[in-house]
Amino acid sequence: MMRTFKKTISIAILLIMLTSLCACSGGGHSFSEIFQSNKSRTEQSEWNGGLFETPSVKYNNDLAIVAANLSEAAEDHDGTKIKNLYSSYGMDNVKTYYYTQGFVGRITGIEYTSKGGACAIGYCELKVNGAPTNILVITARGTGTLGEMTGDLFKGWVLESGHTFLNRIVWDNVYDFEEQVSECLNDFINEHPNIKTSGNLKILITGHSLGGASANMFGARMTDAIGKDEWWSKLVNKNDIYVYTFGAIKVLTSEENTAAGYENIHNIYNYYDSFGPNGNFALLNVSSPDAKFGHTELYQDEAVHYKESGVSCTNHEMKNYKHALELNKTREVLQLGCREMSDDPSKNAQPIIEEVSDFSIIGTWKSVGEVGFGQAQPGATIVFSNENCNFYSPKDKYVLYRQGETLFLECTSFIFSETLKFAVELVDNDNILIGGYSTDITTKLRRIHETSGAPEEAAMNTNTNKSIFNDIAGTTFIFSSGAGAWDTHFVIKEDGSFQGNFHDSEMGLTGDGYPGGTLFLCDFIGRFKLVEKVNDYAYKIELEYLNIVGPKEESIKDGVKIIPSDPYGLQGGKIFILYLPGSAISGLPIDYVDWVKMPNAWYDSKIPQKLPFYGLYNVEQQQGFFSAKESVSPYDEYIFSDSDTRYISESELSGLSQQDVRAAINEIYARHGRRFNDSFWQSYFNSKSWYNPKINPEDFSDSVFNKYELKNIKTLVAWEKACGWR
What's 650-722's CATH class? Predict the structure, then answer.
């Protein structure tokens, strides 16, 4: 739920772990029995005691590769991949935590959960410098749940309460994750107490993104405790604790690293990571090369080599980091350099940027390719003046520069204040290709030689007096977590006015008089006015007013505490962009797409090329609504009022939205008084006059269903699968 998400403070995926080796003992199967899949003998042989003979304060590229393999394997939802990799390294004792409760995990087949913090822990014995040594490995998946994603997203913008950790203030969601890892390790050690008495011990901790941030904190915790009262304090020193993180998001609320005393923590960071200072998600303020314990092993890519190898150098994925580490073995492309500790300043240098003197992009261009990006769709006219262009949105600011042998175009959106970066290939003076970095699409532009007039002004004049509200009157707009934890929805009218409701519930927040939990509610009215037409698919509108009409005070109703709240998605916003169906997805703000893709079940392989509904984007808050004009109103009593007395046919489902079908399933359960852990569905059914919540989810039995209900659930679930909704 949003309130909990903001407390833990948040677009993808991460881990913490400590690795082990193929020759490790302690397993009941031979290596060939447990690992006859697609892992190469080269990879297997890289796990050996020699990895831990080098002091941890010294960067070890071979160990970094092992850590990267672990971090990547941890990024699944049920823990199968990470278990297999641990076993291949000889750790059949591996134990995973919270993996079955991830974003795609189901509860009794009808709900999503936001529980996160998945991790894996195992150990085995290797010979290090000839001595038998236990290698302890911990892996935390990181961002894989809705709560984690939202916590990451809000990081750097909202901090309701920080935590003091080793005399530093750290972000809430990273702190919470690290605390979970600590609890998991305690559980594992209780099951394997011999680790505490076996003599020699080495520890490897790794993770990516949020998992990397948690690994960073946990590595700092273990390092700081040396010589103190923890169980490992007398078994290891700093050079026995190896920490490797990849693209870790911010840990500290400050922007500087805390390096002194944590030289064993290596934070590997791609200068062009999509969440970094030069990435296309830079404005999210989530990730940073610094703001962590330890120091940064910063590397810079060479775009040409990455392009040829098919790996984007601007993404946030582990495959990017693994690719760079493999290349670093032969020094073909890059060298990892410790930004704070390297003796070679050239490794730490910022890219050299040069002005372009042999080509001018100023003028009018036409998009002549088969695909386009932003406003540069096939057939569109793109104008570059001295300072502005309309490549991404009207009156963008842009700069064209050369870095090395490559030309780059950076456009900062006038509307969204977002900067996107593109590589520019000169075919000749009148034909250019623009693409890469912020998009996988390559746009072909051909110069138009104008003979008179002022094409810049003509092309970018988008003012219009036409009202759009007549066209969208009656449309319901929804801002939702996607897993149903909270929801804001409103219906817009012909004059731009609207009326709606927000709800967010915490059923575990109980007390005297309200055993049923706590519900945060808000009924509101407001009005938009048209500012201008941006293009054929977008309108800029302004929120004239937003008034809260109820509830006015706290109350308790039917065992549930009601607390007045504010409408998420609308509060804090002034300027909004209305997108029409058919808008090119590639031209929309990335954060808008991220907000709407989860509730609409868009995964990377299923994101449409064009927007299938109306969209509304809160520019200031960078939040996105989607329309559900065909959906049943949340105030209707039933989707199928008689689903307990007759069979539902597939022909009846063709006109229903994804949310309607899910409501039809859940109302079969709700009819029997089942409560819902998912706060959206709990508040949804609380609004129904017939609903009598009396059975907790863990106490509910499907045996109460009759033959019609059982068959109808199967029919509805099958329809969800056929539509790609589950």
Answer: mainly alpha
